[in-house]
Amino acid sequence: MTPTEAARDGVPDGRAGHAPGHPGREEAAVACTGLRYAFGESVAVDGLDLTVRAGEVFGLLGPNGAGKTTAIRCVTTLLPVPKGMARVFGLDVSADRMRVRRLLGYVPQQLSADSGLTGRENVSLFARVFDVPRRERRARVAQALEAVGLTDAADRLAKTYSGGMVRRLELAQALVSAPRLLILDEPTIGLDPIARTVVWEHIMAVRAATGMTVLVTTHYMDEADQYCERVALMHQGGIRALGTPRELTDDLRARRGDDSTPTLEDVFRDVAGSGLDEGGEFSDVRRTRNTASRVG
Ligand SMILES: Nc1ncnc2c1ncn2[C@@H]1O[C@H](COP(=O)(O)OP(=O)(O)OP(=O)(O)O)[C@@H](O)[C@H]1O
User: I need a labelling partner for 198 at 20 to 30 A (CA). Which of 19, 127, 228, 291 fits?
Assistant: First the structure.
């Protein structure tokens, strides 16, 4: 089966064998089946079948408007699931919202840090919201700040932070509850290449230390290629291809039958075809986040 076929056919939801919310090796971190979400007449997610395995770094890629954020918001319980099913470590996100939320850390695209608070105060706020036990809070906040390299800047106001530091602060906010699943929506958008690398190094270090699952959306193909074990290419509300970056590029090369070395972007252009023109250019990051200026 080619990666494209695997995506089309969907994958099992991985529910068997373990109590929901207590992941075993084969329990899926995320399992969406036939997930559909529409804003009025506009269908944003159209029958999405997607499985993210426990412990993997999984990239959800696609152009502006592909439906990535909407799908993620369903998984994080921030949007309802009107049709289909979404599970997190076996828990139904509709039926078990609070338990699902306790398993998750979520870094949204929109700014989630308060510029008028210090880094430490921002992370402490999240520790309280996410019910980190009072006696553990101080240590857990310090650990989260340390994990993202912000210990020295912890007592400065967030408005004095660079864009990359703000993004790392938001990462600390999501990590303070020790999530089993970290979901990041465009974690590096608008950052310079060095700041992007630093953010990723911290994500990967925490993941190596904890074994948490990472689900990330990104427009940056080079990041997906470098850091994600598997990627799904999403377009017009559905998954068009799924596999390791290597599987996807090898598959395209085999289908082309030549010696070229295709990139993930080539794969995407191949599976999305002319529809790309309607949905936006794949690498066109129009809504550059520019975190630093927004914080200031
Ligand atoms: N609040 C909303 N109201 C109406 N339509 C919306 C809303 N949010 C998203 N949409 C539409 O749903 C579709 C999917 O949007 P979504 O933000 O999920 O895509 P995306 O893949 O995350 O894109 P981007 O990379 O630009 O964030 C788009 O057509 C978008 O215009």
Answer: 127
